[in-house]
Amino acid sequence: MKRILLPFVILFSVIFLCASCLDDGNETEFIFADDTAISAFSLGTLNRHTTVKSSTGEDSAVVVTVTGSKYKFYIDQVKREIYNADSLPVGTDNKHVICEITSKNSGVIVIKDIDSDTLRYYNSSDSIDFSEPREISVFDMAGTGKRTYKVSVNVHKEYADTVYWNLMCTEPSLARLTAMKAVENNGRIFVFGTDGTATHIYHTDAADGHSWRQATPNFNMVIAAADYSNVAVKGGMIYMLCGSQLLKSADADNWEKVSDVAGVARLVGAGSRRLYALDGNGGIVSSDDGVAWTAETLDGDARMLPDRDINFAVLPLRTNAQTERVIMTGNHADMLDATDTTAVVWSKVEEYAPNSENHSWTYYDNVVKKVLPRLENLVMTCYDGRLAAFGGDEMDGGKVKAFAQMYFSPDNGLSWHNDSRFSFPKDFAGSKSSFAFVAGSDNFLWIICGETGQVWRGRLSQLGWANDRTSFTKSPRL
């Protein structure tokens, strides 16, 4: 690594002079390839600095090894870039890297210094500092050209299985809401909340979260206090049931009337094709357009339908195209069994292909042991292909403390489990009675708190990593 480029030039001069001095009778013709490129790049074994738990529960710093050859490097011959799309683990030492670089047609590889224009020969046994992108060039053997690449050895800055929460803001207008519901639509987070007198609507860009604006609906009517929960999103439109009128809007400012709805008591949610509601007779109804409503069939006791803390989620079925499962959770104001400590969960499979069967709603009659507790002000959303829920104190006894944990269901609401990765933010200060929970774009979870006005946004770090890389390895002719 101590040699500079000058000997490389002298080498070609010597070869030329030796070739010209050969006896004409024994003349040998030397032909050098006039094109080259870096054709392969791989890492050797690297050190990683991390911490582990000792037998006494204390953190200890250790050094472990990482097999660098397991991390594929992509070579983009057009952009002249070399990089690993799958970053190395947090703590990997990329200042002392042994790498294997291969060139086409035995091209000569040199590396530019970080702090100068000096070029040094590549040696596979020397360690290289890749703490920042390096410039690596390869010269063809004919001495007529070179190709220069930017080489990046990427290392994760976050642990893959950790949720990182950020306090986006503390918003006074949200703090005065005594109950609320949040939805995501068209790249915005909307909060519908009541102050006990009327419903107010606030929103922020999903990429922002720091600044909130109050919506100014274009109709002269006060939205009743209870209407904050009569909200659903379908096809890029927000639907809201105000009394007997069904309205829709893309931005919560400009609303248009869909229909006068008779017999619909509560709008609960929407799948990709249908709106769902509870009717005045203790059943479920659905509508494609919000005008004509059809009674749904129930495979279970209709008295077990929720009448408070109602949540709705949609999970596409991976095994069937044009098919999804819709799930509804909630609580009863007065349980049929006063000792019951579980929330209620209903589910239905919706098929949208031609001639598909219309399925019934099924009540999960506590068929598994890992049930969803009957939590005050239960909230639920869909995150990373699973259902996620939490709530305040458990009803009728308070055996589960407020915000004790989040509950996750990997099986469409059949069973609910703790996930230690998803703890609440360290400085989280929520109201036991007023909070909202929603999954937004870019795999972010949002928690909006009444009383405090805190707005938290968090994400499982690995869901924020880019994975849209393409391999470019063919070496075009110079």
Automatic annotation (TrEMBL):
A Pfam family reported for this protein in Swiss-Prot or TrEMBL: DUF6242
Record has Signal as a keyword: yes
Entry's transmembrane regions: none
DUF6242 domain span: 41-153, 160-467
InterPro entries: DUF6242_C, DUF6242_N, WD40/YVTN_repeat-like_dom_sf
Gene3D superfamilies referenced in this protein's UniProt entry, alphabetically: YVTN repeat-like/Quinoprotein amine dehydrogenase
Keywords: Signal
Cleavable signal peptide: 1-19
Protein name listed in UniProt: Exo-alpha-sialidase
Natural source organism: Xylanibacter caecicola
